[in-house]
Design a protein that fits this description.
Blueprint (H helix, E strand, L loop, with lengths): L20 H23 L9 H7 L2 H17 L12 H11 L2 H14 L4 E7 L5 E7 L10 E7 L6 H4 L3 H8 L5 H9 L2
Antiparallel strand pairs: 1-2, 1-3
Helix pairs in contact: 1-3, 2-3
Length: 194
């Protein structure tokens, strides 16, 4: 199986002014593409040659895991952004967020703090645990909640390459911008498939 860069549901300049075309050219076009290329080269002749991305993330280690998880994480991140994003979730996801965190505002604050306080590079995740209870977790480097038996619903990339061209070292500004781009329909669909 050959893994490929996903088709974005927006143009490279579609997330401006919050995420610039230049950032997407590097982050999506170079970083994400490099993970895809590396993964395809690394899995040749291995037990993962015909494995799905989820199987690679759950069962591999070393370079195959790092590149496979980064392909998964980036695809998951990019496909949940939209030029018409922002606002708040609705339906069952909104109810679950309120039930778990007290309010959408409290959830947003806790998720933002998770991303802002993650030391170094990594990801903030909204996940459903084995009992479908919502949780916010942090993962460093290529970390992915699938390895802990959790179902990812939403992620925020807090590697510097996700924001440095736009906000330099101001990760909190990037996090503020992130909320204006979230495509809640995509995230709600993931939640409704639990």
């Amino acid at each position: 199986m050959t893994h490929e860069l996903p088709k974005l549901p927006y143009e490279l300049n579609g997330l401006e002014p919050f995420i610039s075309q230049k950032t997407l050219e590097f982050h999506f076009g170079k970083h994400h593409q490099a993970y895809v290329t590396n993964l395809n080269n690394l899995i040749k002749g291995t037990a993962f040659e015909n494995a799905s991305l989820e199987e690679i993330v759950k069962h591999s280690e070393g370079g195959i895991f790092n590149n496979g998880a980064q392909v998964y994480n980036h695809t998951f991140y990019f496909l949940a952004l939209s030029p018409k994003g922002g606002g708040e979730p609705t339906g069952k996801l909104a109810d679950a967020i309120t039930s778990t965190f007290g309010s959408f505002a409290a959830f947003k604050d806790e998720f933002s703090k998770a991303g802002a306080s993650l030391f170094g590079s990594g990801w903030a995740w909204l996940v459903a645990d084995a009992h479908n209870k919502l949780r916010i977790i942090k993962k460093t480097n290529a970390g992915n909640p699938l390895t802990d038996g959790m179902t990812p619903l939403m992620t925020m990339d807090v590697w510097e390459h996700a924001y440095y061209l736009d906000t330099q070292n101001a990760r909190p500004k990037y996090i503020e911008n992130f909320w204006t781009l979230l495509n809640w329909e995509v995230i709600e669909k993931r939640f409704n498939e639990l």
